[in-house]
TrEMBL record:
InterPro entries: F-box-like_dom_sf, F-box_dom
Bias-annotated ranges (Low complexity): 255-268
Region entry Disordered, spans: 255-301
Protein name according to UniProt: F-box domain-containing protein
TM stretches of this protein: none
Record Gene3D superfamilies: 1.20.1280.50
Species of the source: Absidia glauca
Amino acid sequence: MSQQLLKLPDALLLKVIYHLNLQELQQLGQTSRQFHELVYNNPRVWHQHVLFPPKDSRITDQFIRQLVPQITRHYGIHTLRLIQLPLTWQGYMYIFDQFAHSVDHIQLETTFTVLQDLVHHLTIFAANLAVIQQDNHIPITFRQYCIDASHYHQVLVDHSYLGESNVAQITRRFLSHSNKGTGGSRLSNLDDPPFERLRQWQVRCTDHPTDSKSGEGGDCIVQLESLVSFLSGSQLINNTPAAAAATITPIIASPSHTSASSPSSTPHIMAGQKRTQDKLDPSNRQRQRLVSPPRASSLYV
């Protein structure tokens, strides 16, 4: 059957494949070498309406590790909606590894435990990037960190936790850097931030109240915001959905205070504008746009 389908023109096959869901795409890619290449090497197959269905219990860490690294890298994915998926911090880091270079909007809803784990590991990841940049070495990727997280924790131990006493203190240092830039030595912006195009970040804790930033859920969200700000190279500010398009100044050039807390009925939202020098002197990766985002599918809309 698959051999008969392969006799059809690629353009026609792609029109059919475009309307398959995530699991169907994976199953089709396993039927033959030709379909594997057609599915995973064609950017138009992978659009934001197929990645990832909300609350899908089948999207586990193992599923992500098997699927995501096979997808060809391109600049067509601008939005990631990661809504109540059964993933640990590792699953999210694998997703970030594949799509961080192109996304400008990430929406994340998960449990307090997973948010805590993300804060911990993104702190170690971000601190390692700071150390690597200072030593003029090649930056690590999210995937490299996942493979050997204990090694990168040891790097911080060897560097005396960047002058702090533990990972939690480094997290607070990123928070100070993002909000006011006071306390401790200054952190330098990353020359090549992994979230190079990120402008909007929404995060909601599904099992802890976030009506006050003094609560556990609110604290976790604020800490994540400061880390994502550092990893995007932009100062990102909490705001309501209506004000999500506000222009934000860079962290180093003009530190700014975070705005007032968002209402409890809505997720905390950050919106940021990339640094001016990124627009004037785009990196090679930014110039390698392979395809324009395809038209929206009726699937999962």
